[in-house]
Amino acid sequence: MPHQCTNCGRTFDDGSKEMLSGCPDCSGTKFQFQPDGFDDADPPSDPELSEASSGSDRSGDGPSGDAVSRTVGSAASTVRDLVAGSAGPDATSASPPSDGGGDDDIIVAESEPVDESHAQADARSQVAGPDEVPGGPGLAATDADDETQASDEETVDSPAEPDGVDPAAESAGTAGPSEDDASTGGSDRSVADEPDTERSDRPDLAQLREELNEQFESIRVVEPGQYELNLMELYDREEYIIALQEDGRYSIQVPDTWSGADV
Amino acid sequence: MGLLTNLKDSISRAASTLFSEEDPKRIGIYGPPNAGKTTLANRIARDWTGDAVGPESHIPHETRRARRKENVEIERDGKTVTIDIVDTPGVTTKVDYTEFLDHDMEKDDAVRRSREATEGVAEAMHWLREDVDGVIYVLDSTEDPFTQVNTMLIGIIESQDLPVLILANKIDLEESSVQRIRNAFPQHETTPLSALEGDNMDEVYDKIAEYFG
C-alpha cells in the first residue's frame, strides 16, 4: 500500500493508475509514499543479498501486488533485517500490520489499510527520541521487542547503526517524518557521516541500495536537505513532483491529458 | 466516437505545433549546476531584448525554477530566428545542503535551497520531456565533462531527436579545455564561448540560427 492520499487517507497500491488523475474520492493531488518494506517483518534467517534476489521468486506467492514492488519491499526488508533495529521508529509504529508475521506481511498490510494509516500517522506525529534515531542506543532493543529475531544479535549494533538511514531513506517519502524529526534533533551529523564508511564495509548493502534506486525512486530523501535523484525516473514519469516537504509528503502535477482521457 | 474526435484533435494540434511557422521554438538551456546557463540566458536576452532572465550566482543551484524569456528575435544574415529561451535549473544526481554551508549560508536556508534545487531538477527533467523543441547544452570547460549527468542528459536529448547545441563555456578561465568537451561528445559539434565575457558570442548566435532556425 505504498501511496496514501494525504487529504482523505485513501490508499493506493504501488503502480496504481487511479491516483494518477488525482484521488478519486476527494480529488486530492497530495500523496504520501509508504513502501511495503516497512510493514514487512521477514524473519531475517538469511540476511544475505540472496534474500533480495529471491524476492522476485516470492512475487508469485501473493495474490496481489506487482513483482517490482514486492521485490523492492523484500529488498527493503532485507536491508532492514541486516541492520536489525535501525528502523526503530518505523518498525515500531508500523508493527500492527506485521503481526501476521512472515513474508505475507506485504499482502496483509495491503489488505489492512486502516491499520497502516494509523501506523503511518503515528510515525508522522511522533517525535523520535534520541534512542529512536538510527544509530541510537535503544534501537536494537526496540526492534528485538517487536520482532524477536535471532539475527538481531548477529548484526549487532555497530555495523547496523549507520545503515539505519537506508531502510528509511530508501522509502524516500515514508521514512521522512521520523528521520526528519530525528535529524533536526541534532543527530544528523552522525547519520550523514556514517553510511559512507559503512557502505564500503558491506558492499551487498550498496548493491541493494543501487537496486532499489534503479527500480523505484525518482527522488530519494537521504535526510532533510540531502537528496539523490534518479534522472531517468524523473524524465520517464508523466507526472512530476512539484513540491517536496520534509515530512515526506510531496505534490505531483497531474497532466491535463490524464483527466481528458477519461472523458 | 469521442475517442476518435479526441485523437483527431490531438493529431491536428501536434501537426500545427510541428509545422507552424509563427510559433517560436522553445529552446531549453540545460547543463549541470554552475555551468553558466543563466549567464548565457542573460547574455542572449540582453543582446536581443535588453532584459535579463534571472539572477546569476557563484553558488550552485541559484536557478531553482525554470525561467522563460519569450520571443527572443535573433538576426543572422538578414534573417530573423525567433526562439523562446528556457533557463533551467542545473541538473544533478545529488543535492546536499552541506555544500551550501561553505557559502556562508545558515543551515535552514541551505536545506531549503537544497529542497528547491531538487524540485528544480524534477522540473527541468519534466520540461525536457514535454516542452522543449531544442536544447542548448552548457558545459563548464574547466570541469570534466565525463559525468553521469552529462551522459544521461545528452543521451535523452539524442533519443528525443532534439537538435542540440553543445557549448563549452568559461573559456576565459585558464583551466578551460574545449578539446576535452569535444572528445567527450564527438558526435556533436562543440562551440566555445565565455558567456560572462561575451567571447565568441557571434559564433554562438550563428549556431543558434543554424540549429534552431
Description of the structure:
- Chain A has one domain.
- In chain A, strands 2-1-3-7-6 form a 5-stranded antiparallel beta sheet, with no helix packed on it. In chain A, strands 4-5 form a two-stranded antiparallel ribbon.
- Helices cover about 50% and strands about 10% of the residues of chain A.
- In chain A, helix 3 runs antiparallel to helix 12.
- Chain A is an alpha+beta fold.
- Chain A is globular and about 45 Å long.
- About 60% of the residues of chain A have low confidence.
- In chain B, about 40% of the residues are buried.
- A 6-stranded mixed beta sheet of chain B has the order 2-3-1-5-6-7, sandwiched between helices.
- Chain B is α/β, with parallel strands linked by helices and about 210 residues long.
- Chain B has a single domain, classed as P-loop containing nucleotide triphosphate hydrolases (Rossmann fold).
- Chain B contains 7 helices and 7 strands.
- Chain B starts with a helix and ends with a helix.
- In chain B, strand 5, helix 5 and strand 6 form a beta-alpha-beta unit.
- Classes of the chains: A alpha+beta (about 260), B alpha/beta (about 210).
- At the A-B interface, strand 5, helix 13 and strand 6 of A face strand 4, helix 4 and helix 5 of B.
Describe the sheet with the most strands of chain B.
6 strands, mixed
The CATH architecture of chain B comes to 3-Layer(aba) Sandwich
Report the biggest beta sheet of chain A as strand number plus sense, adding barrel if it closes.
5 strands, antiparallel
Number of domains of chain B: 1
Question: Which parts of chain B are unreliable, with pLDDT below 50 for 5 consecutive residues or more?
Answer: none
Number of strands of chain B: 7
The number of distinct helices of chain A, counting runs of at least 4 residues, comes to 14
> Could you name the CATH class of chain B?
Alpha Beta
Strand order of the largest sheet of chain B: 2-3-1-5-6-7
As for the number of domains of chain A, it is: 1
Strand portion of chain B: 15-25%
Number of helices of chain B: 7
Determine the N-to-C terminus distance of chain B.
39 Å
The CATH superfamily title of chain B: P-loop containing nucleotide triphosphate hydrolases
State the helical fraction of chain A.
40-55%
- Beta-strand share of residues of chain A: 5-15%
Principal-axis shape of chain B equals globular
The oligomeric status of these chains comes to: heterodimer
